[in-house]
């Protein structure tokens, strides 16, 4: 009997600071695709046309060969994608979530998972996202931004911080994920170093009001909100270690919250998803204040799919296995 399932190209790795996490996401998705019976090829766009022959080399943290942003074009234009029906994107961060790989795949005429070019690029631009959140009446923390050229004048922003939302505040790159380059500044003396760190990863730093309270996230699948999930990190901050180290965070899903708050989080998540023009699936991150006020932080159009990832936990809460989630994403994308 002929296998009628589409042929999948699973994109993982990439060149962003989230390369290691993308490999973990890719490995989890790859195993699910094999279980589901899909013919699957692996592509790390950072390697261009020189892809590993051994499957395990795609997942090891040691690079198989030199990686480069330039290699993305070569990888997409290569024969690797001949007869491929769908590119499943397991990339994170720049060149994966910012519309770059999406643009290249569209030029090649290949369908892909997740949101299209414009929504992907806007979601990675935290400042632009927050402007749209405000336009659509989605509450988000107050903020100011610093461009690379203004890094040497970061001291001048201290007065603006003090006169607007004060300390503590959050300083982070404008277009990175996984808390890469993020600092919570509790006093003035920490601002300069935090701005310099953020600007190592982006040409803009976002300085944001810190909201005491809880980490909350809501997944969206096929324009429906998944159960609300509350995160309880060991550090108090849901940082890189707490996100990707088993046992460093506890999760409550569905979150034990007053119904009015729970419903508002789901409606705000769906509104944020649609305000950026997202498609298929995404994860919307919030802070929930001590007074149960909701503050939308960002939209993740290619959320993590590792053993500790959040969207699979939310899907499981409605009885959906990881394999069923992957199957649904493929169906929506085709």
How would you describe the overall organization of this protein?
The protein has 334 residues and is α+β, with helices and mostly antiparallel strands. It folds into three domains: 8-112, 3-Layer(aba) Sandwich (Rossmann fold), CATH 3.40.50; 123-139 and 212-320, ATP-grasp fold, B domain (D-amino Acid Aminotransferase, Chain A, domain 1, 2-Layer Sandwich), CATH 3.30.470.20; 143-209, Dna Ligase, domain 1, CATH 3.30.1490. Helix content is 33%, strand content 21%. It is built from eleven helices and 14 strands. It has helices at residues 19-35, 71-77, 100-108, 117-124, 126-135, 156-164, 191-198, 240-244, 259-275, 310-316, 322-333; strands spanning 8-11, 40-43, 86-89, 111-112, 143-147, 169-173, 183-185, 204-209, 213-221, 224-225, 229-233, 249-252, 281-289, 294-300. The strands form three sheets. Strands 9, 10, 11, 12, 13 and 14 form a six-stranded antiparallel sheet that branches. Strands 2-1-3-4 form a four-stranded parallel sheet, sandwiched between helices. It has a four-stranded antiparallel sheet with strand order 5-8-6-7. A hairpin with a 2-residue loop joins β9 and β10 (224-225). The longest helix is centred in the first third of the chain and has 17 residues, at 19-35. The chain is globular. The model has no long low-confidence stretch (mean pLDDT 91).
Question: How is the secondary structure organized here?
Answer:
Elements: E1 8-11, H1 19-35, E2 40-43, H2 71-77, E3 86-89, H3 100-108, E4 111-112, H4 117-124, H5 126-135, E5 143-147, H6 156-164, E6 169-173, E7 183-185, H7 191-198, E8 204-209, E9 213-221, E10 224-225, E11 229-233, H8 240-244, E12 249-252, H9 259-275, E13 281-289, E14 294-300, H10 310-316, H11 322-333
Parallel strand pairs: 1-2, 1-3, 3-4
Antiparallel strand pairs: 5-8, 6-7, 6-8, 9-10, 9-11, 9-13, 11-12, 13-14
């Amino acid at each position: 009997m002929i296998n009628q399932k589409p042929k999948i190209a699973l994109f993982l790795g990439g060149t962003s600071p989230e390369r290691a996490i993308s490999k973990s996401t890719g490995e989890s998705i790859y195993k699910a695709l094999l279980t589901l019976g899909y013919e699957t090829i692996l592509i790390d766009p950072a390697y261009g046309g020189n892809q590993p022959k051994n499957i395990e080399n795609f997942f090891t943290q040691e690079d198989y060969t030199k990686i480069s942003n330039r290699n993305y074009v070569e990888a997409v234009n290569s024969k690797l994608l001949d007869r491929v029906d769908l590119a499943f994107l397991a990339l994170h961060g720049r060149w994966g979530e910012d519309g770059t790989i999406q643009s290249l795949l569209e030029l090649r005429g290949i369908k892909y998972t997740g949101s299209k070019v414009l929504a992907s690029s806007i979601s990675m631009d935290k400042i632009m996202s927050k402007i749209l959140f405000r336009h659509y009446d989605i509450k988000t923390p107050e903020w100011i931004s610093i461009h690379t050229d203004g890094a040497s004048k970061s001291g001048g922003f201290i007065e603006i911080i003090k006169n607007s939302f004060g300390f503590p505040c959050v300083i982070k790159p404008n277009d990175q994920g996984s808390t890469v380059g993020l600092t919570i500044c509790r006093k003035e003396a920490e601002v300069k170093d935090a701005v310099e760190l953020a600007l190592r990863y982006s040409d803009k730093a976002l300085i944001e009001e810190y909201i005491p309270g809880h980490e909350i996230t809501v997944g969206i699948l096929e324009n429906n909100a998944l159960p609300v999930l509350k995160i309880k990190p060991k550090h108090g901050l849901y940082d890189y270690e707490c996100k990707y180290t088993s046992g460093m965070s506890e999760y409550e899903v569905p979150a034990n919250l007053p119904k009015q708050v729970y419903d508002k989080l789901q409606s705000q998540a769906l509104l944020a998803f649609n305000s950026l023009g997202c498609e298929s699936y995404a994860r919307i991150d919030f802070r929930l204040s001590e007074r149960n006020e909701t503050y939308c932080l960002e939209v993740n159009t290619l959320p993590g799919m590792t053993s500790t990832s959040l969207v699979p936990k939310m899907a499981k809460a409605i009885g959906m296995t990881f394999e069923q989630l992957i199957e649904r994403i493929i169906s929506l994308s085709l």
